[in-house]
Amino acid sequence: MTASEKGLDRSDPDWFKSAVFYEVLVRSFRDSSGDGVGDLKGLTEKLDYLEWLGVDCVWLPPFFPSPLKDGGYDVADYTAVAPDIGTIDDFQDFLDAAHARGIRVIIDVVMNHTSDQHPWFQASRSDPDGPFGDFYVWSDTDERYSQARIIFVDTETSNWTWDPVRQQYFWHRFYSHQPDLNFENPAVHEAMLAALDFWLERGVDGFRLDAVPYLYEEEDTSSENLARTHQFLKKVRAHVDAKYPGRVLLAEANQWPADVVDYFGDPAVGGDECHMCFHFPVMPRIFMSVRRESRYPISEILEQTPTVPEHCQWGIFLRNHDELTLEMVTDEDRDYMWNEYATDPRMKANIGIRRRLAPLLDNDTNQMELFTALLLSLPGSPVLYYGDEIGMGDNIWLGDRDGVRTPMQWTPDRNAGFSSATPGRLALPVIMDPVFGFQAINVEAQQASSSSLLHWTRRMIYVRKQHTAFGRGSFLDLGGSNPSVLSYLREDGDDVMLCVNNLSRFPQPVELDLHQFSGHRPVEMLGGVEFPPIGDLPYLLTLAGYGFYWFRILADGPTRGASE
Amino acid sequence: MSTWTEQPELAAYLARQRWFAGSEHVTVTGVAPLAWLSEPSSDPGVRFEIVSVMAGTQPGIYNVPLSYRSEPREDLSYGFVGASGVDGRTYYVYDALHDPEARAILLSGFGDRAALPDDIRYGRLPGFELEAGVDNVLLGAEQSNTSVVAGDALVKFFRRLSPGPNPDIEVQEALTLAGSDEIPPLLGWIRSGDFDLAMAGWFERSATDGWDTARASVRALRDDAVRAREAGGDFAGEAERLGAATHGVHQRMRELLPTAVWGAEELEALVTRLNSRLDDVVSAHPEVADHAAGARAAYDRIDRGVPVEVQRIHGDFHLGQTLRTTAGWKIIDFEGEPAAPLEDRIRLDSPLRDLAGMLRSFDYVAHSIPAMTGVISLDPTVDEAALADDWVRRNQIAFLLGYGFERSDAMVAMLRAYEIDKAVYEVAYEAAHRPDWIGIPLRALTALIGGSEAR
Q: Does the model's ipTM exceed the 0.90 cut?
């Protein structure tokens, strides 16, 4: 056991199933040095806040040296820290301090490609016969693998780009400044495993694996989800399990759930690839369900979601550093989403637009609470995005995805308490509009008010953490008489939670068939209020607009028939 | 043996039930009990009883399964019928569908059939078997039947009986055996002699009916006060998928059940039937008289020279006969118009009759909220009725598009005639049952007769 592991409970290898994740961008969280850029020391200062909030695991997107043409996902060195945000020692200090509070840390690893500034690529293009000559996918023609689609159709016209230095084309599934690594080459496997070991040895608790479906390419295929890609992931998993048990692999595979489920690996052994995968379609479906005031968009996608192997878990989220992702959901005949979106100007406008949760929901607290309650109670581990817990806004005038990466708003003071730098020096400006500006929306004010969104979110997180049904339980969609009310049971042994959500702006009644719990009393979770006992007839509940309930159903109550 | 003809209690119990037609001067004129499914000595005794009644001057036959208990049961009191003697002993008699143990006995024939008496048959489609002792629960009683959920099955006990095969079972059996996924599959039925007593189908646990689903959209529209295509609760995608499911069902019914072609003679007879219904309604409801000439002209536009393919149809098709499930739309209740005689309910007709029913249902649902709340508009500067009409048009078009409706002159004329006929029927229905709603069909008649052919 390394020094950094002291605060962690290592007894449960399935810890990630019931963990609450929190995505934080180091450059935007807290600037300790006053240079206008958030840094690792600043992040360490704010660990008390994350512990207070109830976060179990922090996810750090790439903080490696990078030309930052793709938010750091264009990595120029896998085993170093970008100089503007700190040093390896700063990282170690952060990791140890997090662990001391019982908070785990996962970091991003981009396996598919590097930046064109990475020394491997520079060596590969200038010395084709050298040790890195075969690290990338080179070709004399740009006609191979022609069935692979182009993902960033707005900026790229081909998956091949001519390199004037090497006088060959190189393969890239994303931007042309991000050449794909050549996984046919065993030396690439070794280099990648060595990079993972570098961080695992320091104590990181796992990796989010970026863009995993694209590692290999083969002629006459889409070059996605290939068998050899899965073989490589199995190899990574076996390597990590053997040397560093209890660490987690979380895959980003933006595909349909039926295809994503393959990234968990073999169900017979409880999963032998990634422990977790993001469930992408559920997020736009939540937005759609509330927009349509209909539970069917959510119910359908959960119905189509296969069961995951025993030691695996979905990761779910409302917002993250990317856009409201729909581009990569391509299987149209299983999905009516596109049709629905295409006819609705407001939903259409949100495809590919980078907004935070609060502005997407018109800053309506009731909706923000409903969305958060869904995030915390649907199957999977929730991944919160920094700032959404206080209802932060965005800045649509900033380019690319920077609009949702503005500095965390800590206080109503200068620079929102993010930095002591001269305001003009901040890498990204703080939000200053009258509704979402830091003087109105900040951690300090919300911590001082027990009725704030922040306190409410924290209470919900703590409820969730104390009931295994949410993280580990089964999921049963209860249907019910009202199409605008989504009701489900989460059940883990004796821990039974009933969640009822009104997706409509109007008050709604719902009748639920709960007769299997006849004689039991539902207890509402935030207030502990006992509701009338369940009988054989449908159970009637009424909900305010966007209202929801979490009930515990006590399994040790009187059994059915005892009153007869 | 039964004493119910001499005792008033059963007649009084029936008169209180929602599924009973009529409530005054009810007398039980005869009771034909089937054999015991469970002897009274084994407590409870359970059997079906076929009860003949007169309600005023209306005769009727009802399916009344009863449970005979040796001790009174406080917790079943809402299903208590009365005390009755059998073979010299007195029993406390309950509606068996309100008695959980008795319900289990009524359902046991779907499991082990060895012990069944000769006068009753439990039919099961391949693959269906109800496990003994499976949990069962009573759903709310409906207009004409009482439903029980047992395991994955929804068992609908018909209350009002008429001799002969029930068209719902007949149609759903054919559709199920052909593998239709546009209906919840039929699982089985209970039959005695000439009477169908119950049917069992797959219970769509996740379902809500189309009427409620569409109303969620209408409510959102009122609040948004925008054109339907811009409203958050847009329903057109649903309407289109419902149209496709309807087409699937019609196509299978055409393949599996009898069909015919209506020539000039049959079409003339159709026009006569339409005019005759119009005459009846006009004489009772003078407000329809203004529309009569226009309606007759529309009926007369049915082109007798273009033969029409006819087939078995749903017969009472509206949003309330559809279920939105997580696996798409399902269509239910193929009984035809419940008040009509069996011969009319199974009459071959054009599928356009069903389409007209659904088009009218969209109009109904869109205007139902002001009819219920009495609030015509939430914002005096917004013409909500016009927005509702826009919603109706959008969803009718989407439905017809999903169905693949062929827009020939003859088809359009016939569809319009069926819509008018339905609206005329609705006026009479609302006058009798929901006077607050009569404005909906009257308004529709104005639009259908005077209005454009834009759709």
A: no
